[in-house]
Automatic annotation (TrEMBL):
Superkingdom: Eukaryota
TM spans (from-to): 43-62
Pfam family, one: TOD1_MUCI70
TOD1/MUCI70 glycosyltransferase-like domain mapped to chain residues: 150-442
Transmembrane helix among keywords: yes
Protein name in the entry: TOD1/MUCI70 glycosyltransferase-like domain-containing protein
Presence of the UniProt keyword Transmembrane in the record: yes
Organism of derivation: Triticum aestivum
InterPro entries (alphabetical): TOD1_MUCI70, TOD1_MUCI70_glycTrfase_dom
UniProt keywords, alphabetically: Membrane, Transmembrane, Transmembrane helix
Listed PANTHER family: ALKALINE CERAMIDASE-RELATED (PTHR12956), OS01G0749100 PROTEIN (PTHR12956:SF17)
């Protein structure tokens, strides 16, 4: 072939042909991507429950770690402290207040009752003392024996040594009754200063509470009408442990021994090792501590009293022609069921409860939900009463039962109610109790008393 011909031959290269290789590469990539996407969709469709569960588990673990790191929540004091709103209940489809207290103006104009006028059988009560019992008729050696015996039986030189026949005699209702009722001997304990004794003799209406062993805090009463303030004594009984505990928290008494509205009375030489039993003294023996008083309201230390005392007396005593008011029990109605609950909650040993209930069965205590028309069980954290020989007799008998058996006063109340059949008792419903107080719970564990009677008698 001639050279000129060779030089005239040309090879045409298209632009499209030059880009073919890269285009094929991109198409392959798209195919791979589509394949991966389809595979991912299939995986999601197959494992979606697990994929949803994993974030939930992670969130739970995160929240758990936050809870472990955060401090324990404070007790619900702020939620109830200072509340004055009424507690209500549904009556025929309408909300009504559980406690119908008079208006402040009506309380101001209220004529103060000097007595219910209830004609009780008991007209006079004699409290047994060392003038007619063991302490003045035994040598020093025998007195030491009695102190040791008292520690085993819980009767001591404060309570007196009630025998079984004397116990039976104490439940007889006559115009004049003679009973053990604490403060048996000058050497028995529960010492109060002369200044405090003089103060207590001035009280005509008293609201009282106590905290022994560094227990609960002191909550200021609220809801008083101005006209009632000067008519009512507010008294809190403490021991030295509670005083030091409160002072460490900055709660100091002034020169007048007051913290807010409360007069602080420091008791020395407590007569029992069981602090719960020491607490029964101001709770049940108000008439012995305040001999000139006409009315008393007891409030457990876990509560803040939030109603006018005079208004409460009118609502629970005067309006109902009663001398004694106490709340019904909210959970149980039977004394024997109460015994089981006390054991289950470790508030007393099975042996202690069995001894008490066995004695009550032997005495003929009925297994009834109601006694003399009243609910058998009471919730005894609030007690409102007129201080008369009738109610004083009842409280003395009740106190002797908690000394003789367990200190669970809810277990012995039905027995005393059954034996004495005291008229003029108003057992109000649980919702009324809730209206009387703000419940704050127990603040701290009570420190047990380590002294014995022999040690404390020389303090």
């Amino acid at each position: 072939m001639p050279s000129s011909t060779i030089r005239s031959i040309s090879i045409t290269v298209s632009d499209d042909d030059g880009a073919a290789a890269p285009r094929r590469t991109r198409a392959g990539r798209r195919k791979v991507v589509r394949s991966l996407g389809q595979r991912a969709v299939r995986l999601v469709a197959r494992w979606w429950p697990i994929l949803l569960l994993l974030p939930a588990v992670a969130l739970l673990l995160f929240e758990a770690s936050r809870l472990r790191a955060s401090p324990s929540p404070a007790p619900p004091v702020s939620s109830s402290l200072g509340r004055l709103d009424p507690t209500t209940r549904l009556v025929h489809g309408v909300r009504e207040p559980c406690l119908k207290v008079l208006s402040p103006k009506s309380i101001e104009n209220l004529v103060f009752h000097e007595g219910s006028g209830l004609d009780g059988v008991v007209k006079r009560i004699i409290y047994k003392t060392d003038d007619d019992d063991y302490d003045s008729h035994h040598s020093e050696a025998n007195s030491t024996y009695l102190l040791q015996h008292a520690e085993a039986t819980r009767f001591n030189l404060f309570t007196g040594f009630q025998t079984v026949p004397e116990r039976e005699e104490s439940f007889k209702v006559n115009e004049t009754v003679s009973v053990h009722c604490g403060f048996y001997s000058d050497n028995g304990g529960f010492k109060i200063s002369d200044d405090d004794v003089r103060y207590m003799r001035t009280c005509k209406v008293v609201v009282s509470t106590c905290a022994f062993g560094g227990g609960d805090d002191l909550y200021q009463p609220i809801g008083m009408v101005n006209s009632s303030i000067g008519k009512v004594c507010y008294v809190a009984f403490w021991d030295a442990v509670t005083l030091s505990t409160q002072e460490a928290e900055g709660k100091l008494t002034g020169d007048n021994e007051m913290i807010g509205r409360w007069r602080i009375i420091v008791v020395k030489n407590l007569p029992f090792v069981d602090q719960r039993l020491n607490g029964k003294i101001p709770k049940m023996l108000t008439h012995r501590l305040f001999p000139e008083a006409s009315y008393s309201i007891w409030v457990d230390s876990k509560y803040q009293f939030r109603r006018d005392p005079i208004g409460v007396l009118e609502a629970l005593l005067w309006r109902t022609n009663s001398t004694f008011a106490i709340s019904e029990h909210g959970a149980r109605t039977n004394i024997y069921d109460e015994g089981k609950a006390i054991v289950q909650k470790h508030k007393a040993t099975p042996e202690e409860v069995e001894v008490q209930l066995t004695q009550y069965r032997q005495d003929g205590m009925p297994d009834e939900k109601r006694l003399h028309g009243l609910k058998a069980l009471a919730e005894a954290s609030i007690i409102v009463r007129e201080l008369t020989p009738l109610t004083n007799h009842f409280m003395c008998a009740w106190f002797n039962e908690v000394v003789r058996f367990t200190s669970r006063d809810q277990l012995s109340f039905p027995y005393v109610l059954w034996r004495l059949n005291m008229p003029g008792i108003n057992m109000f419903p649980v919702c009324t109790r809730r209206d009387l107080v703000n419940s704050l719970g127990h603040t701290r564990k009570v420190k047990p008393l380590t002294q014995t009677n022999t040690d404390s008698s020389t303090a």
